[in-house]
Amino acid sequence: VGAGGAAALHEVDAELGDTRAPVGQWLRPRAYPRPGESIEAACRREALAVRGGVGIVDVSTLGKIDVQGPDAEVFLERLYVNPIASLQVGKARYGLLCGLDGMILDDGDVMRLAADRFFVTTSTGHAAAVFDWMEDWLQNEWPDLRVWVTPVTEQWSTVAIAGPRSRDLVALLAPDLDCSREAFPFLGVRRTAVVGSADALVARVSFSGELAWELSVPRSFGPALWRAALSAGAPHGLTPYGMEALYVLRAEKGYLIVGQESDASTTPADAGLGWMLGRKDFVGKRALQRPDLIRDDRRQLVGILPVDQTVLVPDSAILVADPTERQPMTAQGHVTASHWSPIMERPFGLAMVRSGRRRHGERLHAVWNGQTVEVTVCHPVMFDPEGARRDG
Hints:
By secondary structure, the chain is an alpha+beta fold. The chain has helices spanning about 5-10, 10-15, 40-50, 70-80, 125-140, 165-175, 220-235, 245-250, 390; strands at about 20-25, 25-30, 55-60, 65-70, 90-100, 105-115, 115-120, 150, 155-160, 190-195, 195-205, 210-220, 240, 300-305, 320, 330-340, 345-355, 365-370, 370-380.
């Protein structure tokens, strides 16, 4: 398991003693435990390092698609729910795709490299599906569009460098790049040389909620970039982090994982992304106007905080209003993610709850395997809600 971009960093990851687990069709490091350290302890140490200093993670498995041609802008404008035509060259935008039924298909970043060229990223597990989706529309519905769509996931190695001290490290790795906030703001995209590679795509995007950068280089240069980063970052306390810490960081910020928070019945509004829906037409827009999809009692993304802070509610636990209700109990929702937050020093989670956005502050009960714990429903963004750290 594991090929292409991730395989380029497979051996250098192993040098650090990572513990791997399957993620989609890939093997990805869960954590980098030190001798005698458990996975859980390593996860907490790594997450705190990102929040307090600087961390590095291999994200080569993100899907990557090259979209170019005179009609590339028109093509992406029709597919993504949010505007693409207004995206300037050298900028990125978080983008969301829906199926014809209006349900969330995938999300990722759309980066504009030129007037007629875009670099699109997808979630790890949906790279092939998104490419097939694009080709289906291009070949069968809009064959008149002059667009070429090329999957390039395995041609690039990508590392993310995140944390309040990440700017210092990126400046060392890309000496010709002005990394100041004014010259390189959040969602900026630049082409430059980096240590170990003559060509790199650097994007200021973040899945941790911290000041962060994604550096993508041709696949064969991935190991050189990783080792150069570890060497240059050592004086700054650089900490490699794995998927377990990444999941904690993103959940603290309420960031969606397609297929975990969402399923085949989740609309953008359900996931708290209704603000992305523009006035323009896009695939799935008409379906979203169906009465059933605009009910106010649909399951919506929320945060949960166990009242008993010694209890970690498991993923997929059912949420009910009355734990004494006779079977079958009336489910109010379910837990999609549950973690211990080292920065908040407490357990927390994300959940999809019926009419969730108007129930903040309400108490529900998580039920699993005969156990019950009371939880408080809250906003899904539980750390740095203003985004000041990300915008750094």
